[in-house]
Amino acid sequence: MDKTHDKVWLNCLGIIKDIVEWQHFKTWFEPIKPVELKGKVLTIQVPSQFFYEYLEEHYVNLLAKTLKRELGKDARLEYRIMVDSGNDKNKPLTMDVPGQGFKTYSNNEMDFPLVINNPVKNPFVIPGLKKMQIDSQLNPIYSFDTFIEGDCNRVARRAGKTVAEKPGTTSFNPLVVYGGVGLGKTHLVQAIGNEVKRHHAHKVVLYVSSEKFINQFQDHSRNNAINDFIHFYQMIDVLIVDDVQFFNRAEKSQDALFAIFNHLHQSGKQLILTSDKSPKDLEGVQERLLSRFRWGLSADMQMPDYDTRMDILDKKMRNDGLEMPKEVVKYIAYNIQSNVRELEGALISLLAQSSLNKREIDLELAKKVLRNFVKSSSREITIETIQKMVCDYFNLPYERLLQKTRKREIVQARQITMYLAKQFTKNSLKTIGEHFGGRDHTTVIHSCQTVKDLMDTDGLFKESVVELQQKVQLAAM
Ligand code: ADP
Ligand code: MG
């Protein structure tokens, strides 16, 4: 008569009970549920990954011995690991893994050598190249020092700093840094990794791109070594996964990440993730994973403002021992508004061009080189743009500029704006007048004349106008 899984397991327990201390039996064997017997393979369900690991480490001999007594020498054990107990919406998630210890058994009748578990394979190690320690895969050039803080990244940077000092113990777990390409996500999370290593030398830090993780997972899955894969990642203290948007639709890899995430989070390990979108907007990623991403802190990164861009360029040039005229740096900072990677790219292209052509870097060269970076080489400048620039410059609210007032500073600002609009746009005097609360063309003519006169007589006034002209010019390039 065929034995059932219940019966087989009951018999095993009968033996185990006599061998294992009562307390241990209660803790490690009572929670196990036999679920299936297929041929000589018994599957038992265990409540967690940790549970499974514990059994494999401490009781594999015993389990093998008793099971072989029941089913013969080909007996094997498989575990069904509960990864998530589920809820109303989601079924409980389980993962089947073969008992590792069993595989290493020799099949010599009932002879049970002492089992040494296979050491976990490190997916980063190329076979044949033995490496005992886990390399963090971090690039040491990325540091907090070289990461300029601005409004655009303040929250993310500070949270990162905190996490680096106290990994796994703050509420920023996971720390999710999100934002568009080239805004510094990789730099920041790598800086966190490097900083952790500096403060906590014993912690195992690992940086991995999502693509790499997914590839590794698929390789391991082909070789029936998912267990090794997951186990490896569960040994990490600070796990950094870059660009999780690439998990999009990689369902099986998401399951693995989920198992790893849970294990690490439960054991107080730090998770750091980056993504091109906020976790709530990520598509093709399981909700249960997203909900965990939201457990900690999600901080976004944006394009740095002009001043921060200047700081980034300055710092970069100082680090590399470079110099170039201030107006050129300003020109780059002003015109590259897409992302920091392009900002750096523009700087590098400019340096390359200058050294290739043995030519000094000046504004003219910069304009030539940056033509590829700047969207339209000659932007149409509008009256509104000039109005805003003048208001910014004089620190005036926009509405004030259009008001009917005799207040000198406002009158002057308005006159300068008209003068610049005449100089830098193709609009008629009539149109310009209309943009200033419906004034007529004679007012515009009068304003332009006044500005010219004042520039001839008032040095300070002239300075302001010249500076504004430069700004408008930059914006128009
Ligand atoms: P992302 O991962 O968001 O696509 P990266 O981290 O690769 O962006 O950043 C692109 C480049 O810009 C890198 O060379 C990085 O060093 C630089 N960078 C981005 N933000 C900053 C910053 N705030 N300060 C200094 N360099 C930055
Ligand atoms: Mg990146």
Please supply descriptive tags for the structure shown above.
477 residues; alpha/beta; four-stranded mixed beta sheet; five-stranded parallel beta sheet; 4 domains; Helicase, Ruva Protein, domain 3; binds magnesium ion; GMP Synthetase, Chain A, domain 3; binds adenosine-5'-diphosphate; Rossmann fold
Summarize the structure in short.
With 477 residues, the chain is an alpha/beta fold. The chain contains 21 helices and 9 strands.
Task: Please give a structural write-up.
34% of the residues are buried. The longest helix is centred in the last third of the chain and has 18 residues, at 459-476. A hairpin with an 8-residue loop joins β3 (76-84) and β4. The protein contains 21 helices and 9 strands. The termini are far apart. The chain has 477 residues and is of the alpha/beta class. Helix content is 51%, strand content 11%. The protein has 4 domains: 5-105, DnaA, N-terminal domain (GMP Synthetase, Chain A, domain 3), CATH 3.30.300; 133-301, 3-Layer(aba) Sandwich (Rossmann fold), CATH 3.40.50.300; 306-372, Orthogonal Bundle (Helicase, Ruva Protein, domain 3), CATH 1.10.8; 383-476, Orthogonal Bundle (Chromosomal Replication Initiator Protein Dnaa, Chain: A), CATH 1.10.1750. A 5-stranded parallel β-sheet has the order 6-7-8-5-9, with helices on both faces. A 4-stranded mixed β-sheet has the order 1-2-3-4. Magnesium ion (MG) is lined by residues 185-186, 242-243. Adenosine-5'-diphosphate binds at residues 146-148, 153, 181-187, 312, 340-341, 344.
